[in-house]
Amino acid sequence: MALPKVVNSAFGVFFEYDTPRIVHIRSKKVGVINRFLQLVIIGYVIGFAIVYKKGYQEFDNVKGAVTSKLKGVVYTNFSQPGLDGRIWDVGDYVIPPLENSAFFVMTNVLVTPDQTQSTCEEDPTIEDALCETDADCPPGVPIIAGNGVRTGTCVNSTRNETLKVCEIEAWCPVERDDSTSRTPDPALLGSQNFTVFIKNNIEFPKFDVRRRNLPDNVNDAYLSRCHYNPHHDKDRYCPIFTLGTITSEAGHLFDAMAAEVLYYECGLRNIIGFDNDSQLSTCRFNASDPVNKFCPIFILDDIVNLAGHTYDGIATLGGVIQMLITWDCNLDNDVEDCLPEYSFRRLDRGDYKLSRGFNFRYADHYKLGNTSARTLYKAFGIRFVITLQGQAGKFSIFPLFTNIGAGVALLSIATVVCDVIVLYILKARHFYRDNKYLDVKGDDAYEHGVMQDQPLLPILTSFTVCLLCFAVISLWVCTVGALESCALCLGLW
Q: How far is CA 342 from CA 200, 417, 481, in A?
């Protein structure tokens, strides 16, 4: 019966042993294919995995901290209260004064001065504030997205005589947001010439290497006048940026990002190549300058420009700019060659139809006689987010041996491919099979486990095909960078 034969055959495998047999085949076709595959694999391992991907190095990710300091003064002279003949300095336009790896610069503002807690009409542009009778204004109920709580009275709107609105108890008068309060340009457009000093201290803990973004070969005088310029060999390391440069590098106009203004009449560091504070205070970042490309002082206009935008374009609606500091270092070279690279991009899009730009409100509280009062500011501007990334590599024998071992394992693919060609493709495949496989029976061979009507060749054929598929999959895994996984898999052969 078939079942006992299958059982005997399966049981007989337990008493068998396979050992590799070396067959030296003299064939031009097979020889050329074998050497070609070996050269391809060796070229891949040496050229790509070891040299290009630096497979002889071990790596460590960068860790560090970033601080920023802004400088600049702007003068506003508009007819709106709070903006007529006023000087704005860092204490006015940088809100909050300190953030973690970020800073905000106000480029425009909506001012509602001298608000007191009293009763007044609600803004008619708020749909929930519209009414016909007092019954539409239940007392004590706040208005959704409004400014206060209903008093129970429906009054005529002084802003739109065709409408009636609920009277509210709130900080009065409420903020006004309409075209009558607009100005043609952002109030603080001059902020594009403000400078920001970026100090970045980093380390690679695995290698005990510390750096900063200030060049060591410059002095305080240079740092005080340098500005970041990505096209200058020296100034592209200057850590002082202008806001206009940042927004331009992000691909936007500064005045378009600086929020539209409305008013109401009421270890290692990024300090590299500088000798002293005087030289550092005069430098400005310039990417094309050999020294100033390390200057950590940036003009804001330059930052925006380097982000691919213009400062006046981004200042209209506000936005978010990313400043990316990249440390990619080869520690097999001099550690002094470990230098930062700056790049900029805008994180938000300037073409959103709803909720464009970046803004928030804050208030200054004071006394008007014996009455508590406040001036409400709706600040529009640009938020700069500083991101640190990078890695360092250094020679290590362990990753090198890992990649070499993986390459040796990959060479077995050439043997598998050539075996398939010899045993299943060439005309003399039957001859090669007879010489490739040899069945040797010992004195104690398990005869009953052999199925005479089921030759071993189909089983070997299936195994070889599966092995070839496995080799192809392993090679594909290697090409996407998982060389160690491939070596482990091939080692199971």
A: 12, 48, 27
Q: What is the pTM of this model?
A: 0.70
Question: What is the chain's alpha carbon radius of gyration, rounded to the nearest angstrom?
Answer: 37
- Token pair, residue 425, equals 């493709």
Binning the chain into helix, strand and coil, the percentages to the nearest 5 are 35, 35, 35
Q: Which residues face 320 on adjacent strands?
A: 383
Length of the chain: 493
Q: Give CA separation, 355 vs 259, 261, 264, 351, 421, in Å.
A: 11, 15, 21, 10, 65
Per-position b or e across 36-65, b if 16+ CB within 10 A of its CB:
ebbeebeebbeeebbeeebbbbbebebebe
Give the separation between CA 20 and CA 3, rounded to whole angstroms. Answer: 31
pLDDT tens readout for residues 218-266:
677 777 777 777 777 777 777 777 777 766 776 666 666 654 433 333 3
Binding residues: 69-71, 195, 359-361, 378
Question: Distance of CA 383 to CAs 260, 315, 319, 342, 404, Å?
Answer: 15, 11, 6, 17, 48
The binding site for ATP consists of 69-71, 195, 359-361, 378
**Cβ-contact 271, 327 below 8 angstroms:** no
∠ CA 330-334-338, nearest 5°, is 55
